[in-house]
Structures are given as C-alpha cells and as structure tokens.
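pipeline/complex-builder :: batch 7 item 3
reading input block
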Amino acid sequence: MAKKHLPFFEVEIGKNFSSGISTQVDWEPRTNIIETEQHLIIEVELPGVEKEDVSIILHGSRELVIKGIKQQPRPSDSQMTFYLFEREFGSFYKKIMIDFPLDSSHISSIMENGVLVVQIPKKQYQKITIEVK
Amino acid sequence: MNQEKNDNEMIKTEPEGQGAEQIDIPGQLPVLVLRDIVVFPYMIVPLYVGRTKSKKAVDLALTTNRMILLLTQKDSNLEDPGADEIYMEGTVGLIVRMLKLPDGRLRVLVQGVSRVKVKALNDDGQIINADIETLEDIEPEKVTLKHKALIKNVRQQFEQIGKLGKQIPSEIFVIAENIDEPGKLADIIASNLDLKIEDSNSILAEVNSIRRLEKVFDFLNYELELLNIQNQINIKAQGEMDKNQREYFLRQQLKAIQKELGEDSDSGEEISLYKEQLSKIKMPQEAAEETAKNIERLSKMHPESAESTVLRNYLDWMLELPWDTASKDSLNLKRAQAVLNKDHYGLEKVKTRILEYLSVKKLTNNAQGPILCFVGPPGVGKTSLGRSIARAMNKKFVRISLGGVRDEAEIRGHRRTYVGALPGKIIQELKKAGTNNPIFMMDEVDKIGADYRGDPSSALLEVLDPEQNNSFVDHYLGVPFDLSKVMFITTANMLEPIQPAFLDRMEVIHIHGYTEEEKIEICKRHLLPRQIKANGLTDKHVTFSASALKSLITLYTREAGVRNLEREIGSICRKVAHKVAMGEKQHVKLTNKNLEKYAGTAKLFKDQLLEENAVGVATGLAWTPYGGDILFIEVKLIPGKGNLILTGSLGDVMKESATAALSFLKANTDSLGVSPEDFEKYNVHIHVPEGGIPKDGPSAGVTLITALCSAFCKVKVKRDVAMTGEMTLRGKVLPVGGIKEKVLAAKRAGINTVVLPEKNKKDIKEINQDYLKGMQFIFVDDITDAVNAALTEKIFK
C-alpha cells in the first residue's frame, strides 16, 4: 500500500465525559488498528468478556462492527457497598470504517488473555500486463 | 438486556445500518432524589450523594444493572422530601463511575438514558423505590418546513449564546449541529442552559418533541437577551476603564519619549534654575518666602497645565525685579550743573531748584525727599528736564504717561487670579529700568482719569508718599516692594485738575514759557542743529538769520514752548533738503525776505498797539498758558438809564471787577470832575474784543478803571501804555501774577510803558534785564496814579 499517505480509518467517537453529553449508552473498548504487509490487524481489549458474548460484524466491505456485552458478576451476597466503580459493564460497541480493499473471505479472529485480535488479509492485486496487438 | 448472541459465528456480514443497542428499562428502580438539578437524557453529570437513602439506592443500582432513577425535589432545602415534594417526571440514569469519598459521600457519574414518569413511590425508610413507565417522545407525523426552520433557529441561537460567552463545551456545538431529532436536540440544549428547576422540569415533562423544542427556543431567546444586555454593560464598563487606562498608558509613553529625548528633566531643571536664581538675589524676607513657596508649588504641578504657566510668569517677575540692584549715584554737583546747562537754556529758577535738591541729597545722603512736580505749558521741556536730571545724576530714567489712565490696576496691577494679569506700570517700569533707584517720571498727572474701575491718582498717593512707599504692594506681586529709593518726578500742564491730596505731596516747580529771546537762543543751541541733522543737512547747507528766527517765532508760532517752532524749522529744513538733493542749491540762507518762500505765509499777526490814542480804549495785559498777550478794553457811553452792559465772554470775577470799577468812578465824581447825572443818562457798555475767547481774572481791574475814566472824562488813553493789576474799591492796586509773560507780550506788541502794581516790582527784577531794554515801568500803589499815567491828561488832581 501506499506509504506516501496514511490509510483512512473512520472510528466513531464514543462517550466523551468532558462534554457532559453522550447520545449512546454502550461503552467502547480500547482498540489498536495495525497495518502489516499482508494484513490489517485490529486488536480490541475485552477483558472479562466471554468469547461467546462478542460478535464481529462486517457490513458490506467497509464497515466493521465489534459489539457484545460484558456481564457484571453477581456475587451471592446481595448486601454490598461499593467504594469505587470504574469498570465498564454492559453492552459495548465499536465501529471501524476501513478505507481500503480487504479480502473479507479470509477474516480470522482469536481471543486470548482478554484481547480480541481480528486479522483481515488485504486484497492482493496482481500485476497484469496486457499486450497491445 | 437484549443482546445478540452469536455462538456459532463470531463474524458475520450484515447490511449497513444502526447497530447500537437499545437499553431496556425495568419497571422498578431505586430513586436518587436530586437538589437543584434536573438530569436530562443524554446528559453525563457528576453528582454528589450524601443522603443515606440515596447512597443505598446507588449501591443497589450498582449491584444490579447500574440504573437509577433521578428525580428532582421541588424545594432544595428539604432534607427528606415526601412524595408530593418531588417532581414525578425524571430520567433513568446509568451509573458510569462511582467513587466513595473519605467523608462518606459518593461522587457518582451518571448518564441520562431515558425519560420516565413515576407511577408510584415507595419509601420504606431505607430506600426509595419507584414504579415507572417510559415516556416515549411523541414525534410529529410529518416533518414540516416549519419544524426544520425551528430546528435551524434553535441551533443558531444556541451558537449565538456560545459566541456571547456562555460557558459551553465546544463539543456540544458539534453534537447539536449533527442532531436532527427535535426532542433529542431540545434535551441536549436544555441540559446546557442554566435553567431554574421548574423550567427544566417543564421541559423534561414535555413529551411532544416539537413543543419541547419550542419551549427550549423560548428559553434560549431569553438567555440570549440576557447575555446581550450583560455584554452591553460589560462593554460600557470596559470602555470607561479602557479610556482611563489608555490615558495612563499614553502618559507613561510620553514620559518615556521625553526621557529618550532628554526632555524629561526639563521641569526639574527649571525648578532648580528658579531656586538658584532665588538664592542669588537678595530679596526681602517676605518676598523670598513667597517666591520659594511658589517654586515649590510649581514643582508639584503638571508642567503643561495653565496654572503652571501663570506661576512661571509670576516667578519670572519676582526674580527679575531689581530688589537689590541699584545704580551708583553720581552726586558731582559741578557736573550736574554742566549737564543741566548744556541740555537746557534758560529755566534758571528750575535748574537752581534742582541743584538745591541734589545738594541736600548729597549732604544728607538720604534718598527720601520731596517729589518734584514740573508744571508748565506743553513743549517747555519738562520731560527732557527729567532726562537731564537722570543724566546729571547718572541714574536710569524711566517714564510713564498717565494721561488718560483711568484704571487703578494700571498703577497697582491686577490680582493674579485674572487671566493675563500683569503688575502695574510702576513695577513694569522698574523691571525695565533694572535698578531700584531710577528717576521715575510720571507725565501728565493732571490728565489722570477716574471711573468705576477706581481712581489711579488715589493709588498714586501711596506711591508718592515717602512715608509709605517703602512698602508698596502691587496686587500682582502680593508682597511689598521698596520704592523709597526711586526719585519720582511728575509733570503737569495745569495744577487745577490735580487732586489736592495728590498735589500736597509734591513740590511744584513752575516752568513758564520762554521769551522770544530765550527761544532764539534755544533755536540756535538745540533746535537748529537737531533739525538740520535730522534732515540730512549740515551747517554749510542752511543758515538762519536772527531776524528770520524772530519772524518764525512771532509770526508763525504762538506758544509758550518751542515744539511748533521746531516743527516749522523742520519743515523749512525739508524744503532746503529738497533743493539740495535736486542739485538746485548748495546753500540757503534764510532771511526775512525769503522766509515766506520756505515757510509759507505768516500764520499770525503781531499784536499791534493801537494806531492812535483813543477815548475809551485801554490796553491791558493777559496771561495764558501759552505766554502773555495784550488785550483791549473798550468802553462806550450810550444814552440810557445808567445800566452796565458787559460783553466779550467775561468770567464772573472780571464782571465783578467791572462793577467795582464803575462804583469807584461813581464814588469819585468830584475829583474827576464828572457830573453824577451822567451815570443816570447813559448806559455803560464794556466790551473786550476777541469775544470768542473766555477771559477771567481780577488783573484787568486797573485797565477797566482807565477805560471808564477815559470814556467819562473824554480824555484819550496813551496807545503805547499797557497796564495790569487788581484794584480795590478804595482805589488801591494789588499785585497780580504772570508779570514776566505780560511784560514780554507788551514788548512784543511794541509797547514801551507798562503800568504795574508796586508789589510786582520783584517780578521785574527776576526777568533777564537784556529783554527789558527800552522798556519803562511805572509802579503804582494807588489807582489814581495808574490812571494819570495812562491818560494823555492827568484827570486826578
């Protein structure tokens, strides 16, 4: 891919506490997007999320949505006092717009140590020489 | 909790669309009652939770689905509000973060999620639970143009508020710009306006999205208006402050510039210069203190202010006055005499008096002395005499003319409070003189005016009184100035108009007119050389014969002084200069023959004695400020009833003399040989020619008697005899004044015999005997002698 310019990713802006306003309830996991020679690698931090609760959805060929739910553990003792509550729970939602062609048929994903890694191979264009007769 | 599970396939392909989850609201939630805030959906807000019930509710929410119902109490002062004291519309909040603070309170970050209505509140003492139902926004069936316009307006107004300085996070504007749902927009904006609780609640309770937005629009407008006014006030206040600051700033800059230009220390230098000057001058204590005080004042003043200019002026005056500067007097009397004689011919009496004055001064070494007042007709040299005295004594000479001065301030100055105030003329001239002991001449003291502005001559009283003028206070200076070393000389044409108190302070020296002979001498010594030189001629070009000068004096001028004479000589010199310049003549000798050619025809006729002796006409002598004159007294007897007729502009005194003369005649009919009946048969008419000129005085008494006697006795009067003298009813002759002028007038007219009172003999002795050649004087004590001497026949036996 062109090294001269950066590929264009449109990542939806999520909750912004400082503005005091949010139109969405879902939380957004922290994400890295990495381009290698062959692949586009997307790493998403999802600790405490069951593999079964995550879904990766590709709308068309450009919009990748990672969503799911992080269940809040329910201890048996119902009488609880919280001192600090920072962890995100509930449904999460991450939408990534990808601006270059991907080979959607070979997407692979793996969940390890609470990190989801999605690997999408780039579409390989073959050099075709056409002879003019 | 509706979640999409996909166990089989983690990755799946879907058509593009909305993927975010909708949250499920349970029917019952714990309640967090808020003070002073209404939480709208989409709002993330930190809350501090202190009340036990509320803390319990937060804990409960965190252990379940993190949702909590946020309700607002109507009165923020209540600690434990009941159900009816809480608004029944609220927002379900999702607790995002929670921190327990050391003091036991909780800091909770909640996010508004959904608008709900409370169906029932259950307060069990531990925790409040609410049964709720979700309020869905009622959207308009169709989005009309009106709705779009409303949305656009709201956005614009909201932006405007931001521009006017309302503290709103910038992200909000981006969000508001991208939200098209009217209800959502209304909520977001409402959460950023600091509305009152009831207003906020009315927006929260509004389910119709369009109406909600309209309400928000109203509040926006109100807020905008408020901000506008606030801004205007701010701008105004700032404007005032800016102006002051600007001025201060500019002044500082000016100072810096001046410093850079080296002008900074200007005022400081000026002050020190004044101080230095002050230290050099030996001023009287009072004046020095006043000056020092004013220098101090000046130093504290802005150098550009009008007041400081006034002060500077004042200081200049104070420091430039000759407080201690005096010229060294030369009291060499021989030299003084020489100077006086050289400058002035004649005036022996005056010069003697001046030399006496100087002698006394030399002997007593006292500056104080009487103030001299020269009185005499114009052009006799009063002013130049003053100048000569100054020259003789080696003093500075200053003079002011008081003619027409009406304002007291001219003498004593204006107070400094007046704009453009100056010291009076006395101080001004002293500054000009530069010494404190000049000859100070005041001309025309008889012509001082007086009006509502004050009486200058009264102010002069102080100046001229040797007893008080050592502390003369000029209004402008405000401190006394010592005038006692100044030698004042005044001049006047007449004594009568001078205020008595003023006259009393002066020693009057009369300077009478010059005689013909004196004038010829003055001509030769002063006027001719001066005029010849002034017209660019030399002695070689023009000479005057003595007879020509005499004619000039008698036929071209009639004056006591020599001013007109000098003018005539000047005009002759100009004509000669013309001829010389044209190359027509190299030398002109003025004689009686060619005088008319150069001076024009004679302007006057010589007073001529009568052609022959006549009955009833006697020659009298008169005195005028311009010298003596002869006059004729005519008497005619007209048949009538014995009335006396007097004509010829006669004054009261003269009329009375005529009456007295007639009575004397009536009383002495016997000795005269006149029939008493004649007085019954005739009217007596006495006329004095040149009827246009007023005449007065008692000195015509003798002449009147002579004319009357001649008329009644039918005896002729000698035409070459003139007379003067007052008479009494008893027939005595009393002395009169102006003898010198009268005698000289008689001589001019060709009269060689003059009848004078016996007691005027001394006056004749004072006249230069050279002038009296060919003159005969008959001194009489009794009127009969006078009449006998004047008539061709002796009628008194």
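note: The CA atoms of residues 8 and 124 of chain A lie 18 Å apart.
queue -> next item
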